[in-house]
Amino acid sequence: MNNNLKLVLALLVLAVGGGALWMLQRPMPMDGSQMAMADGGPIADVKIPAELSSLATIGKRAFDVKCAACHGANAAGTQGKAPPLVHQYYRPGHHADAAFFLAAQNGVRAHHWRFGDMPPVEGVTKGDIKGIVAYVRSLQKENGIN
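Below the sequence we write its predicted structure tokens.
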């Protein structure tokens, strides 16, 4: 076998293997269906904290205005639109607070879910995002996501 053919075969194996690995890292919906295909209600069952800090209270207001249309009430996600933020993928050890700032300000390429890319959030300020992060972290903590 000549070297050019070996190189082409090696590249083909890498491309197919890399694509398969990338797809395996993208989670399938819990019921095995295409979550992003079904429009509708919340994805997660979210417990609400009895109390929120003043920053998280401000963040809830900002979330309700800027984020809830896609990410659902109380960050529970919306089938067919956007994932829940009250989910292990968004725990502080996996997505630091800075990731929320970057996603809101710049948008983000889809990488955990099959909802498509998230566009930048128009009119959101750094102060809004700081409060939103405090609110989402409060929800996560109440739901055992630390």
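The chain has one domain: 35-142.
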